Amino acid sequence: MPTTPRPKRTNGNGSSPRPRPTPSRRPARASAPLGGPDDGAEGIDGASSLAEMEAPEVPSEDVLEFLKAVDDYKRKAARPFPSLSEYLRILRGLGYRKS
Known about the structure:
By secondary structure, the chain is mainly α. It has a domain at about 60-95. Helix content is about 25%, strand content about 0%. It is flat, with a radius of gyration of 27 Å. The model has no long low-confidence stretch (mean pLDDT about 75).
């Protein structure tokens, strides 16, 4: 019994999909050396040691109030990721209005 040839696979726009790279085609990645205190590596803000880094900014009362309101909403609504309209509803509940 003869077999019928399979139609070529396309990616939706008529062209054939690109083949996935095999391990032999992938470029070798060099492992980065681990940073230590004497390697000259600097942090994100350019500080080379913890002593030179600035302390993080303390959130204002308004920010803390908003974060608490969001956390309360997430718990009550059982929604780990509220939508933007839900965030606006939370802000309105805190008394913020469009000026």
